Amino acid sequence: MSQDNQRPLILVTNDDGITAGGIRNLIEVAREFGEVCVVAPDSPQSGMGHAITVHDILRLTKVRDEEGVEEYSCTGTPVDCVKLAIYRVLDRKPDLLLSGINHGANYSINVIYSGTMSAAVEGAVEGIPSIGFSLLNHSAEADFAASKDVVRKVVRSALKNGIPKSTCLNVNIPKVSAEEIKGIRICRQARASWRDDFQPRQDPSGKTYYWITGEFVNPDKGDDTDVWALDHNYVSIVPVQFDLTAHHAMAELNEWGYDT
Amino acid sequence: MSQDNQRPLILVTNDDGITAGGIRNLIEVAREFGEVCVVAPDSPQSGMGHAITVHDILRLTKVRDEEGVEEYSCTGTPVDCVKLAIYRVLDRKPDLLLSGINHGANYSINVIYSGTMSAAVEGAVEGIPSIGFSLLNHSAEADFAASKDVVRKVVRSALKNGIPKSTCLNVNIPKVSAEEIKGIRICRQARASWRDDFQPRQDPSGKTYYWITGEFVNPDKGDDTDVWALDHNYVSIVPVQFDLTAHHAMAELNEWGYDT
Q1: Statement: residue B143 has pLDDT above 90
Q2: Count of A-B CB contacts under 8 Å
């Protein structure tokens, strides 16, 4: 990377793979703000959550080296990409980590399954201001024009204000035009989950295998949730933490008297 | 499974694979308390975090069917195992989910990388009282005698008291004899992280690949943490939540004035 430290150093990754439209658009916007280093998976890694590769090897290949932008493709998970970038590729700590733009929603409970968001969480663990972006459109040909405006606004603010300590931001963008987006709302994660289904199929030898499918079920009707905001054409931003301690539950557990 | 609903139905899984010593010991203890259904990975899945299998098929094989215990091995991740158990294998909701006993620590930030703990978190998402157990001993030949006593104590309490709403329990057990264990402490997750390293090696064709390694760094000296408890020969129990919203950070973000 250039040693021009006047400009912010921005690390970019995703979970849809380095060739996905979402990350290509994110890289374009990131270049407006600083020096860009991309370390992203060489294949789709959706649903990989916070997985790291401990039982297999990792490979890293430089695929682009231009003024202001370097790109590496990696055989690992999104979290592997972040770790490799920090501990192997970069010679200084990035000023910002951007993950996405994911092809598909990462609101509510999806934050824990999402490779895109887990990469941002890993950045936060490392003390890097980190933001994950997701567009509510699964299509490989999704239009990211409105998303790019949102990324610009959020990145500008993050470079000016930083990110609240020990958090990262989960930004979801509704599938509407820029004009239809009503604004940005700071939200909590809706209390929702998946009612999963496993489609059984037969392989040529007659043995059964399964594909996971499922239905997102949201009984949480609060107007302060990410799901509500997106349903009403707002961009949702949820601050996400990696301290999973349920502090409020500690008193109840202490009453159980394990040692008596 | 037997339709004898008098006894609790206990779902057992892990991330070290269905043949690991830890899960074999956990199954033995679980049988003392109820009907047991095991759905566990057919291969080691350490570090898989909350990964689910969306780009590949899943296979499920019944490997044991005896009075009071059924076992299935699964090609997927620990979270896949929990989902398959709930939505494909079991005909009623389990009364308890037990994950482990993991060969190695899952304290502090390791909770987010751990397949063992992610399985327990998935159980909590599904509203099942869920507990992950880990012994601070990576050895395949680890002695689980003291751990079994701990499991008995915690399971007895969970069947009596339940688990605090929307949480699961992360139980770590020090690598000492039962006599040396000083007791059980309810803890918060220590604020620590990994300083990763990637060992470069050359394959036979001369190309570089990497193995992840690293050093656990804990600057958090609080005596209310899981790391402190384990260092002092206590069993640590951290209540773990899946609402990742950093509620305390929402006010700060609202001051940023995105829409001005």
Answers
A1: yes
A2: 230
Three-class secondary structure of residue A5 per DSSP: coil
The answer to whether A38 and A60 are in contact (CB under 8 A) is no
What ipTM, to 2 d.p.?
0.95
How far apart are alpha carbons A176 and B182 in whole angstroms? 59
Tell me, yes or no, if B87 comes closer than 8 A to chain A by beta carbon.
Answer: yes
pLDDT digits (tens, 9 = 90+) for A18-46: 999 999 999 999 999 999 999 999 999 99
Contacts of A46 in chain B (CB under 8 A): 54-55
pLDDT digits (tens, 9 = 90+) for B182-202: 999 999 999 999 999 999 999
Contact criterion met (CB < 8 Å) for A50 and B126:
no
Residues of A in contact with B88 (CB under 8 A): 198, 210
Classify A260 as helix, strand or coil: coil
Domain assignment of residue A178, given as a range: 9-190+221-244
How many other CB atoms are there within 10 angstroms of residue B178's CB atom?
A: 11
Domain of residue B117, CATH code: 3.40.1210.10
Q: Cβ neighbours of residue A70 under 8 Å, at least 6 residues apart?
A: A1, A36, A37, A38, A62, A64
B211 part of a folded domain: no
Q: Where are the alpha helices (DSSP H) in B19-175?
A: 21-33, 78-84, 110-113, 115-125, 145-161
In chain B, how many domains are there? 1
Determine, for residues A258 and B183 on separate chains, whether the beta-carbon distance falls below 8 Å.
yes
Coil, strand or helix at B189: coil
Q: Which of A84, A121, A258 sits opposite B112 (nearest CB)?
A: A121
